[in-house]
Design goal:
This protein has one helix at residues 2-22, and strands at residues 28-34, 37-43, 55-58, 63-65, 73-76. With 79 residues, it is of the alpha+beta class. It has a five-stranded antiparallel sheet, with no helix packed on it. It is rod-shaped and about 65 Å long. It starts with a helix and ends with a strand.
């Protein structure tokens, strides 16, 4: 009986750890559309949406400040 309780507790502990990892905020790579061109940008986890006035740095070293009404659309692509 004690062995069964220990195994059950271990399974519950591993499930809780897996859920915490799955819901953790992560940084991701997104795209900015500027006319017909798309630029990849690194998006930090603490600023994941457009319209927040956050600064994103693209892979070619350019920096964009993204706003909803700026005319530059931001398309996040999360892993």
């Amino acid at each position: 009986m004690n062995k069964a309780k220990l195994i059950l507790a271990l399974i519950l502990l591993l499930a809780a750890a897996g859920a915490a990892m799955a819901t953790k905020a992560r940084s991701f790579i997104g795209f900015i559309a500027n006319g017909p061109f798309y630029y990849t940008v690194y998006v930090p986890f603490d600023c994941p949406e457009d319209g927040w006035g956050c600064v994103y740095t693209s892979s070619n070293g350019l920096t964009y400040q993204v706003y909803t009404l700026s005319g530059i659309r931001f398309f996040p692509v999360k892993p």
